[in-house]
Amino acid sequence: MIKVDRRPFARYILIALVLCLMALSGCGAEKSPASGQMAEEAVRPSSQDQASKEQDNALREASISFFAMDTFMEIRAFGTDEALLASVEEAVEDLEKRISVTVPDSEISVLNSEGRADLSEVPARMLKRGLELCEITGGRLDLSIYPVVRAWGFTTGEHRIPQQSELSVLLEKVDYTKISLSGSEASVEEGMEIDLGSVGKGFAADLISGMLTEGGVKSALINLGGNVQTIGAKPDGSLWKIAVQDPRSAGIIGVVETEGQAVVTSGGYERYFEGEDGTVYWHIMDPETGAPARSGLISATAIGSEGMYCDALSTALFVMGEEEALSFWRERGDFEMILVTDDGRMLASAGLRGRFSAQPGSGYELQFIGEGK
Fold it and tell me: Is pTM, for the whole model, over 0.90?
């Protein structure tokens, strides 16, 4: 009998929210204006009053939480109101309707069933970037792995262990280079199917960040489960503190201090099932084998300026394993990472020294790697 993980919903949240403590300062007393200025001052606030009002607006917090993309999402933004956040929620829900493979008439579902589709602007932009990320990661991320993931039951909830002969047939159609995109026209080879889910939350976080920034928000925390994205620093100017979850427990392994960046974690503990022999099978697949990636890593975190990039990297790094991930980090030089190995080591890239601190008593040995490159 196959045992399925039934942990509390909170286990899906890989990275904990930050507690933002703010002290609001009052305004000092002002001198009374001269009698000749009374009427004018009544209709025109003083520069000090205006500055105080702007400060109050910047500190005003609005928040929203909702469920989308199979994830509990929560957004805290400062200097705005609920109206902008409501439009953000609508945008995410619209995105899900257009790209989800579980929505029969979504644009990606149409592409999979008919072999071609005329994509609207956002899904086309998402697919284009997704294919770029497949190439950047050398195929460790592959958008065409969907039929393999489905064969293991991770998309249906009916978990099973496919025969190697079945996987061999499915792997013949796993090749992101066979996905074509010309403008808005997308097509795949016969028998191929794609899924943008591996980069979906990262793209959504970028979408949300862009909408909030355009709306004048300079400080926000966007939490989409294992994907956290920040806009600026906290309202008091201090860095956001993002906790990274322990892949072996409900605790944390450490805290990253950051501003204006995405922090994305992938791990085998997110979605998995246990076979009759006690073997754990997780949802992160190796595109070369068609089986759960066994790279020696149990968690991979990517930190950088783009949510979709970090989303792709967290998956790709998990598949790569320690040595290849370190070489890739050295080659790219545009992100930081935290790798947790199955032998109890916690490897943080050199750029995180002074920004990442290990949780006391976590049981992992922290090492900073790649220093001096």
Answer: no
